[in-house]
Amino acid sequence: MRERFTEALKEAVKSQDKIRISTLRLITAAIKDRDIAARGADRGDGATDEQVLEILAKMVKQRHEAAATYEEAGRLELAEQELAEIAVIEEFLPTQLSDEEITVAVNQAIAETEAATLKDMGKVMGVLKSKYAGQMDFGKAGGQVKAQLG
């Protein structure tokens, strides 16, 4: 995945796409931060592809929240910039699961973990996060798990 970011950054610099350049630099900086944290804690060479997907998903969520805040404040140009950054980040994420696919995945995870009560929610979410990192909205999935177990 790192090679994809490097190549995309080179292409963005050549085409002088400022938003794409800044977004890709933010992504690589976040990955380097995770690498440094992993090395400092003696957990291997750096961020895995799964961790990179988590970083990207977190970045998308942060930008959605920022865009909503900017829209409420009437700062539409800043909201548009956040949305443009989201589009760049999402290019590197796997295809997102639909609501129906999330429901199927939640049902499978509940069956797999033999979850019966809300106390088992952590196990179910752990299975979902390990299998579907970067592919689903875990807020929606958590709501469905809670509804089924509660």
TrEMBL record:
GO terms for molecular function: carbon-nitrogen ligase activity, with glutamine as amido-N-donor. It comes from the Bacteria. SUPFAM superfamilies: GatB/YqeY motif (SSF89095). Gene3D superfamilies: 1.10.10.410, Uncharacterised protein YqeY/AIM41 PF09424, N-terminal domain. This is GatB/YqeY domain-containing protein. It comes from PS1 clade bacterium.
